[in-house]
Write a structure and sequence with these properties.
The complex is a heterodimer of chains A (384) and B (95). Helix content of chain A is 43%, strand content 17%. Chain A has 384 residues and is α/β, with parallel strands linked by helices. A 7-stranded parallel beta sheet of chain A has the order 10-11-9-8-12-13-14, sandwiched between helices. In chain A, strands 4-3-5-6 form a 4-stranded parallel beta sheet, sandwiched between helices. Chain A is globular. Chain B has one helix at residues 88-94; strands at residues 7-8, 16-19, 28-31, 34-37, 47-49, 58-61, 64-69, 78-79, 84-85. Chain B is globular and about 40 Å long. The relative contact order of chain B is 0.20. The chains are: A alpha/beta (384), B mainly beta (95). The A-B interface holds A 153, 157, 161, 186-187, 189-191, 193-194, 202, 206, 209, 224, 233, 235-242, 245-246, 249, 339-346 and B 1-2, 4-6, 8, 10, 18-21, 43-47, 59, 61-62, 64-67, 79-81, 84-95.
Chain lengths: 384, 95
């Protein structure tokens, strides 16, 4: 099965063709915003890029490199200040197959000069990118990220099951699926470790959940003590295992190929279902990790309705709660409520959702894209 | 199209189903090929026993173990924290 995508020189396929302006460090944010306001390019700004150590710094670098490497990005301008840890030339040097430029505010001679030069560069880059056309690509070339946020009873009963059907269909076609949210994985560790392709991968699944639990313990809490929450219990969830199983169902039922660090790409040749040890924090952080890890598209189940998308990848929002569809219809892309109303099976709903995703991959805009409701945020990593 | 259902069994191995409406005591609920008479109310999102589950046996949902019965649960009973305990640690140790 095919969709129409943007073929990159390095063989990757994008579902969008963005020109982005990326800051390497918080200090360059304002220059990036001024350039993108004047040109319509996509701004990617964040609060990191300096004064970081160890795994946190490595994480930030992976995320920023992931933006530049992303198949949905046709060209990019990187803007730095000139004294930060992660300098633009180092980032750009690792990326091939697309037009990339970089400037330093110090070398340009300040804000105004950097903005003026940045605008000129974007105008040059845009000409190349706008000339690109979509061509047929195999659905098996898609990397699909899965995520849930603002979950409710319908998430575990309908939306996540439908996404799981899609995940299994894509894996069957040779595609890749990412499942994240390590804290939510905790209660399903045993079940997921048994689905690992090797004992090494099983151990990695246990290890990332152990690190997450030890992080909570250092904060004086435990994942077990806090879950399920009183709200979960009132909604009908009885145990942590049940809550976690409802979450991991988004990834479908395929064997687990490996565990990825947050924002790390799937290794060359790797396909199938992968777990990503996504960083701590909100859905927007997890989204950034999975998208910059290489997912061209994301499905996001949201019972109560979360509007946030990504500036790089289309994020398809799904709810099974009829009230949410009514109240937040301008934000939610897909209605899984027929499952919750007993009128449709999760299987049939999943097939509808798959068709929706193929349309989005081919250029159909998501609600978050139309509203330009996007967040790019780099979360914290849990360390022992 | 499927006839409208009032409770969902997610996997054919599950011994519980989840109410997708607020269900009343005495109501007959059809789940796949079986009929269960509810012994108590089961609110939306909560689970009902599709068969007798002896004390110490596992509650199965999503085709997997989600907890253990802390007392004998009769067919048609509300399955929740009053009669189920978590098994997170037990399952982690099995790997």
């Amino acid at each position: 099965m095919e969709f129409l995508g943007f073929r990159r020189k390095n063989g990757q396929v994008g579902v969008r063709n963005h020109v982005v302006v990326l800051s390497t460090v918080l200090c360059a944010s304002s220059v990036v915003r001024k350039i993108t306001r004047a040109t319509g390019a996509v701004p990617i700004i964040h609060e990191r890029g300096c004064m970081e150590l160890g795994r946190q710094q490595e994480h930030t670098e992976r995320v920023l490199r992931g933006v530049l490497n992303h198949p949905n990005v046709g060209a990019a301008l990187v803007v730095g200040l000139g004294c930060e840890q992660i300098l633009p030339d180092r980032l750009v040097g690792d990326v091939s197959g697309k037009p990339l430029r970089h400037i330093l505010i110090r070398e340009e001679g300040g804000t105004k000069a950097a903005v003026d030069n940045g605008i000129r560069i974007i105008q040059q880059l845009s000409e190349d990118v706008e000339a690109a056309e979509r061509s047929p690509a195999d659905l098996g070339e898609l990397n699909l990220a899965t995520q849930c946020g603002s979950s409710d009873t319908g998430s575990g009963l309908a939306s996540n099951l439908a996404v799981g059907v899609v995940a299994d269909m894509l894996v069957e076609l040779g595609g890749t699926v990412l499942l994240g949210e390590t804290a939510s994985l905790y209660g399903a560790t045993g079940v997921m470790a048994k689905r690992a392709v090797s004992s090494e991968v099983a151990q990695q699944i246990i290890d990332i959940t152990d690190v997450m639990e030890s992080y909570y313990c250092r904060m004086g809490r435990s994942l077990k003590e806090a879950n399920p929450t009183p709200g979960n219990i009132a909604g009908g969830l009885t145990t942590l295992v049940e809550k976690s199983l409802g979450g991991v169902r988004k990834g479908g039922t395929a064997p687990i190929q490996g565990v990825l660090a947050p924002a790390a790409p799937v290794p060359p040749g790797g396909r199938g279902l992968w777990i990503m040890d996504t960083s701590l924090g909100l859905g927007a952080h997890t989204t950034t990790d999975m998208v910059t890890g290489g997912a061209q598209i994301m499905v996001y189940t949201t019972g109560r309705g979360n509007p946030v998308g990504s500036p790089i990848a289309p994020v398809v929002k799904i709810t099974a709660t009829p009230g949410t569809m009514e109240a937040l219809g301008e934000n939610v892309d897909f209605d899984a409520s027929p499952v919750l109303l007993g009128k449709e099976t999760a299987e049939s709903c999943g097939q509808r959702l798959f068709e929706k995703l193929v349309a989005v991959a081919g250029g159909h805009l998501t609600k978050a894209e139309r509203l330009d409701d996007n967040v790019f945020a780099i979360g914290a990593v849990a360390v022992l | 199209m499927y006839a409208q259902r009032r409770a969902l069994r997610i996997d054919s191995n599950d011994n519980v189903a989840t109410a997708i409406f607020d269900l009343m005591s005495g109501e007959t609920v059809r789940v796949d090929n079986r009929q269960v008479v509810l012994r108590e109310p089961v609110p939306f999102g909560h689970k009902l026993a599709l068969e007798d589950i002896p004390r110490g046996e596992y509650i199965i949902k999503y085709g997997a173990r989600i907890g253990r019965a802390t007392r004998h649960i009769q067919e048609g009973e509300h399955v929740h924290i009053q009669n189920v305990e978590d098994i997170t640690d037990e399952l982690r140790k099995e790997v």
